[in-house]
Structure formats: C-alpha cells, structure tokens
Design a protein that fits this description.
Length: about 80
C-alpha cells in the first residue's frame, strides 16, 4: 500500500532535474545578465565597475564575481 508520491519527470520544471553543471551554468548566465543590466541602466554601477576596471563580460566563472564591487550601506 506504499503509494509513490513522486511527481512524474514531465511534471517538473527542467531546473528541478538539472545537473550541478547545468545549474551552475544557468546561475552564471543569469548573474551575467544582472550585471549587464545594472551596468547599462544604473549610473552608480557603471561608475563602480569602471573604477574597478571590470565589465560584465569579464564574468566567466562564478569565482570571477569576487572582482566586482559590492554595494554597501555606506554607498546608499
């Protein structure tokens, strides 16, 4: 009487069955999009990136994120 409650694979969003590498690739793609959007649309981030000498296209791995400036409370 053990009923299998697992969803059918076709019922899941593809991200729910993705491998670690696929998830990391998606994270990188979305992060790169966010950085590019901030660079293109927010003068503060464009200045901050330019001052650090980085561009959104410089993000090739998740560890590259450490090269980018972060906004602190003081910056606001």
């Amino acid at each position: 009487m053990n009923k299998d409650l697992r969803p059918a694979p076709g019922d899941l969003d593809p991200i729910e069955t993705a491998s670690r590498d696929e998830i990391a690739s998606l994270q990188l793609q979305r992060l790169r999009w966010s950085l590019q959007h901030a660079y293109d649309n927010v003068p503060h981030y464009r200045r901050a990136f330019d001052e650090k000498g980085v561009h959104p296209s410089d993000l090739r791995t998740l560890s590259d994120l450490a090269r980018f400036p972060f906004t602190t409370k003081k910056d606001l």
